[in-house]
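question for whoever is on the cluster today: can someone run the full assembly for these? two chains, 606 residues total. i dont have access anymore since they changed the login thing
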Amino acid sequence: MSDLVGYLVTGLGLGAGFALVASGLVAIYRVTRVVNFAQGAFAVLAAMLTSSLLGAGLPHGVAEAGGVLLGAAAGLIVGVVAIGRPGTSPGTSLIVTLGLGVLAYAIEVLIWGDQPRSYPGVPGVAEVAGARLQAHYLLILAVTGPVFAVLAWFFSRTDLGKALSACASNPYAARVVGISVRRMGLHAFVLGGALGGLAGVLTTPVQQVTFDSDVALIVNGFAAAVLGGLTRPVVALAGGLLLGVAQTLVAGYGGGAYQVEVALVLMLTVMIIQSARSGPVPATAS
Amino acid sequence: MRLAVAAVAALVLPLLLPERHLATFVLLTLAAAVTVGVSLLMGYAGQVSLGQASFSAIGAYTAGLLAVHGVPPVPALLAAPIVAAVAAVLIGFPLLRLRGHHLAFATLAVQLILLSLLAQAEWAGGAIGLQGIPRFSVGDFSLREDIGYAYLALLVLGIALLVSRNVVSSRPGRGLRAAATSEIAAAASGVPVGGYRLVVFALSASFAGLAGGVYAFYLGYLAPGSFPVLLSIEYVVMAVVGGLGTLAGPVVGAVLIVVLVQVLNTLGTMPGMPDYAPSVLSYAVYALLLVGCVLFLPRGVVPALRAVADRGVARRTGAG
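^ ran it for u. tokens below:
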């Protein structure tokens, strides 16, 4: 029983990381229709910078904030290159973000080398319903919950959030009422970068990060996001948590080797079912 | 005429190259053969595959395992493209319903699953890899020198080019081109879009599988790490940079990128350079070429050069 609780909380913590990556993907996709392949790179860059800042003696909190800021800045750069030129199709933008993700490898290896990095998070061991687990998992959950609440408030209550949602639901109408769709797209990339950065900063103490960790992050994030058709952040949160729990349960009871397959097979199944339901040609938003 | 010149040049080149460059030539030619398939898939069927290296891996492991267990090299090599194509049909049947970024992620996922399974498969050598693959031989004639593998690789590239040229100019090929532009219109005109897509997917997988088979005999050793996700991305880079939907494109793309990476590698390993320099330089090359190409030369190097050449000819004839 206590094993199960332990796996569940660890799984939720792991899943919260996926959910943050997924919400970044969703924020960008909703507004720009671009699936951002560089989303995992934001997390890796932020985690690497945080480890350096902590190494340089900066206090916790400041170092993590620096990491998230770098994620947001990287988001802006990727956004400018991927959607900055008029007439870039979403397909082309996808390839551009793929290329920028590889460019991030060069930058990361150049600055931080190719060895795994980590840094201490919340120290100590917590007890939840008789299960002992690293206390840091509780911090991940304690941060992710409010972040999603703020996201929901941001999209539904603030002017900027409403403008972003307007671009998401009808770009043409948004342009008619004077919203710059491209500028909103860049805002979405900055937001996506910050969310990706937050994911990397939060999960690195419990999972080491290397320059090519982004592949696993982006695939898990995409798997979580795809549940909600890439447009609904709350479903992405649920998807991420589900994925994290499923993976830790498989690792805990079924042997650690197969946890990668769980996420991927789940994602493939969901995508195939969705495409079978909606037909081979996706309906385009008018 | 141009084709004959290119063929002769390709056949003579291995004889002129110094011994130490032959390995690069073999790997380049095999990469070009895989890229021909990627270009066919992306250019004619309109599909992005980020998992093409998994079909190379399937072909390589098929040939390697058969050869290790005593099957003569020729049938072992011939099995490589067949098994890869069968795998592509099995995988493609559910996956090819997906479009665009969904298909890109699905193929990436398939490759990650394959790599994870290979690393756990004890019978395939697991994470350590499959060792002791014999050299390629036909009867008593055994291929020991790099030069032999250079011609074997050229043969593979020639087959890939020939097959894809015939596919492109065939009726199904025209149907596919129509489907890449508008799937609904093509389907309405009676093109069995789904079936053709599956065939192209299987065909491109068989090129990758055949190249993988030669790779297995050439190196004599295979590991899951020989087929990373980045390798699949490299094939996409080569196809996009060279120019999708042309036959020369994939070859030019592969040559351009492999030679450039090789030159930078040589620079990066010069004394005094830090040990991470080669990988940093090659990542940067892939990234900048890919981004630069899709933004500024969206149709690739070969069509761009052709357009420049045509303009030059037109100007000269116009003046004269």
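summary bc i know u wont read the tokens: Chain B is about 75% helix and 0% strand. The longest strand of chain B covers residues 130-131.
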